[in-house]
Specification:
- There is one protein chain.
- By secondary structure, this protein is α/β, with parallel strands linked by helices.
- The protein contains 11 helices and 18 strands.
- The chain has helices spanning 19-30, 47-63, 81-88, 122-127, 129-149, 206-224, 258-266, 294-309, 331-342, 366-372, 380-396, and strands at residues 8-14, 34-39, 70-74, 92-96, 102-106, 108-115, 154-160, 185-187, 193-195, 229-235, 237-239, 273-276, 288-289, 291-293, 318-323, 329-330, 348-351, 360-361.
- A 7-stranded parallel β-sheet has the order 3-2-1-6-7-10-15, sandwiched between helices. Strands 16-13-18 form a 3-stranded mixed β-sheet. The chain has a two-stranded antiparallel sheet with strand order 4-5.
- Helix 1 packs parallel to helix 2.
- It is globular, with a radius of gyration of 22 Å.
- 43% of the residues are buried.
- Bound molecules: nicotinamide-adenine-dinucleotide (NAD) and UDP-4-deoxy-4-formamido-beta-L-arabinopyranose.
- Nicotinamide-adenine-dinucleotide is lined by residues 15, 17-21, 38-44, 76-78, 116-118, 120, 135, 139, 158, 160, 235, 237-238.
- It comes from Podospora appendiculata.
- One of its GO terms (cellular component) is cytosol.
- Pfam families: Epimerase.
- Residues 11-313 form the NAD-dependent epimerase/dehydratase domain.
Length: 402
């Protein structure tokens, strides 16, 4: 091409040192993309960078391919310096050839954005909703304005199966068009379910609403300017980790999700798992979830970036896709899969339902399969095996804080 030899195209990954972000960055690098990470480390650690580098180096050495570029800037994506940063990665340079012809080319360029940065605790969002709306919604709006100014339009957003709300309880695979619009309940500070009629979205937590509103904003933005190519990926329950055990889920705060809690139990940092509810209408009474390997989720982002690049072949400048396995497993089956790889029993304590929980939540994978050409490769057994590697690795150098 006509680019100077030092030109480079980057995928900007915001929140790229977190659980799903770090695995996606790793997959991007393995596929040969250059990556620019922005993360303020509010829920992650800089050491993740180092582990990504180790894994990328060994992959590239094994394949005999050059190591792509990986840049990291510790930054709140809402800060003013985002503009300066985008500016410095959108360098237009003028070159004049021997015949005196001038051409403008990019020295470097951001060709796609994956936006993971958000607060993600359902419980915390009930007590500090403004903090959640600020980071997950206001931040997104400003980001989109900034990207628009720099002409960066290929955008992938982290949404969640939580946008389906109580629709999940119908027990059918959730299709992308199945959103609820009827009034439902809110959870108050003390964890009680309060019916407020009419509720705007029919969803039960501020966190869920941040994702719902974000999708609505993205759809409006795309409708107003079809230059945008926007995909919202609705993750079901991402679990597991890279088989190396070098990357994993290491939240800074208290673990509340099933697998991080199970990880702590396996590491001896918690005595047992409290099972929330044994009276759901399922095969063993515990709730059903659609667990999906985090590397499958990661690959979904690369499929989505490519789908956006094929823009001319479809009309949708905004589209939502489920990333789930399509298979439901109960909480008890998840526990058993880990017991099998760990070779020991996980102590359980049977407690009541957690407020706001649904009994079943499983994806329809049809749209992602047919349109993105994405399908999951791993299963629950692999998730358990990979997580066990992480537990053993982390156990060597920690006190049980994962
Ligand atoms: P995570 O907390 O591990 O990763 C988020 C990363 O973003 C962290 O590294 C954090 O430090 C960073 N971050 C947060 N706010 C920031 C800001 N203002 N500026 C810069 N960096 C910031 O979470 P995750 O599990 O990897 O989730 C990623 C995304 O996927 C989130 O948007 C989350 O809501 C969504 N999601 C997660 C799940 C899940 O089960 N993990 C399910 C559905 C959706
Ligand atoms: C799974 C199952 C619990 C912990 C939430 C969000 C969703 C997404 C993922 C971010 C449930 C049970 C859990 C424990 C238990 N997050 N459980 N004991 O609730 O499906 O989804 O996290 O976007 O948006 O809503 O995930 O891992 O918390 O729970 O029995 O200590 O495990 O009741 O049935 P959930 P989870």
């Amino acid at each position: 091409g006509d680019r100077p030899s030092d030109s480079a195209e980057f995928i900007l990954v915001i929140g790229g040192l977190g659980y799903i972000g770090s695995h996606t960055v790793l997959e991007l690098l393995r596929e040969g993309h250059n990556v620019l990470i922005i993360d303020n480390l509010s829920n992650s650690y800089e050491s993740v960078m180092h582990n990504i580098q180790i894994l990328t180096a060994s992959h590239c050495k094994q394949k005999g391919v050059p190591v792509p570029l990986l840049h990291f800037h510790r930054l709140d994506y809402r800060s003013r310096s985002m503009r300066l940063l985008l500016e410095s990665y959108s360098n237009l340079v003028m070159t004049i050839n021997a015949a005196g012809q001038q051409t403008m080319t990019y020295r470097s360029r951001i060709v796609g954005v994956i936006h993971f940065a958000a607060h993600k605790s359902v419980v915390e969002s009930i007590t500090t909703p403004l903090q959640y709306y600020q980071n997950n919604v206001c931040g997104l709006v400003s980001l989109l304005q900034t990207l628009d100014q720099y002409g960066i339009y290929n955008f992938i957003f982290s949404s969640s199966a939580t946008v389906y709300g109580a629709k999940a309880n119908q027990g059918l695979p959730l299709r992308e068009e199945d959103l609820v619009h009827h009034p439902e309940s809110y959870i108050d500070k003390s964890g009680h379910s309060v019916v407020l009629q009419p509720s705007v979205t029919g969803l039960s937590s501020p966190y869920a609403r941040t994702k719902y509103f974000a999708e609505a904003i993205l759809a409006d933005v795309a409708a107003a300017n079809p230059a945008w190519r926007i995909v919202a990926l609705r993750y079901f329950n991402p679990v597991g980790c890279d088989p190396s055990g070098l990357l994993g889920e290491s939240p800074r705060g208290e673990a509340t999700n099933l697998y991080p809690v199970l990880t702590q139990v396996l590491m001896g940092a918690r005595p047992r798992l409290n099972v929330f509810g044994s009276d759901w209408a399922t095969r063993d009474g515990t709730a059903i979830r659609d667990f999906i390997h985090v590397l499958d989720v990661a690959r979904g982002h690369i499929s989505a970036l490519a789908w956006n690049d094929r823009a001319k072949r479809h009309d949708n400048s905004f589209r939502a896709f489920n990333l789930g396995s399509g298979n439901g497993a109960t909480v008890l089956e998840a526990v058993q899969s880990l017991e099998a790889v760990a070779g020991r029993e996980i102590p359980l304590s049977w407690t009541g339902r957690r407020p706001g929980d649904v009994g079943s939540c499983v994806a329809s994978t049809e749209r992602a399969r047919t349109e993105l050409g994405w399908s999951p490769r791993e299963n629950l057994v692999q998730c358990a095996a990979d997580l066990w590697n992480f537990v053993r690795k982390a156990g060597l150098d920690s006190t049980g804080k994962v």
